[in-house]
């Protein structure tokens, strides 16, 4: 996108340079027109002049036609410059809008990531609590199981003694 802007700016600079050249040529033609008029005035006062009045008039008409063409070209160049400037302005606005949209999107994604990190931290904390609870319950069940196994063993011993005593009786 920057390359396109650069190319458009170069095109604007090129057209501005052409515009200045046309203006300079117009000024030169105006100066020549003044000289021709002065020359024409001198011809009317001097009889030895080599160019005839018709030739000067033709040259004047030619110069006038050239000036009109240059003026038309100048107007066309102005319109082209205006179009290019408008296009560059629209492209810059579009670029700015895209940058703002991207900034907003990045901000939203950053906020979403932050929320997910908070959620993950909360889940990890709860998982740690549950793990500790499970360990405590497991230890308690292991103790109860050991106690039950001991009681079962004692029961079997007593039962065996009872059976033995019954047989003796």
From TrEMBL:
Entry annotated with the keyword Cytoplasm: yes
Keywords in alphabetical order: Coiled coil, Cytoplasm
Coiled-coil ranges (or none): 92-126
Subcellular location(s) per record: Cytoplasm
One GO term of the biological process aspect: de novo centriole assembly involved in multi-ciliated epithelial cell differentiation
PANTHER family: DEUTEROSOME ASSEMBLY PROTEIN 1, SARCOMA ANTIGEN NY-SAR-24/CYTOSKELETAL PROTEIN SOJO
Protein name listed in UniProt: DEUP1 protein
Species, as recorded: Caloenas nicobarica
The encoding gene: Deup1
């Amino acid at each position: 996108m920057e390359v396109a802007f650069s190319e458009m700016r170069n095109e604007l600079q090129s057209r501005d340079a052409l515009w200045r050249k046309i203006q300079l040529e117009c000024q030169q033609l105006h100066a020549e027109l003044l000289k021709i008029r002065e020359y024409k005035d001198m011809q009317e006062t001097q009889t030895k002049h080599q160019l005839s009045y018709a030739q000067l008039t033709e040259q004047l008409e030619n110069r006038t036609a050239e000036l009109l063409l240059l003026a038309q070209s100048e107007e066309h160049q102005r319109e082209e410059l205006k179009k290019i400037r408008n296009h560059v302005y629209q492209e810059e606005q579009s670029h700015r809008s895209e940058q703002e949209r991207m900034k907003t999107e990045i901000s939203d994604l950053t906020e979403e990531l932050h929320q997910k990190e908070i959620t993950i931290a909360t889940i990890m904390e709860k998982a740690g609590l549950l793990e500790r609870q499970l360990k405590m319950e497991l230890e308690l069940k292991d103790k109860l199981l050991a106690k039950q196994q001991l009681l079962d063993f004692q029961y079997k011993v007593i039962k065996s003694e009872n059976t033995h005593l019954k047989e003796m009786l």
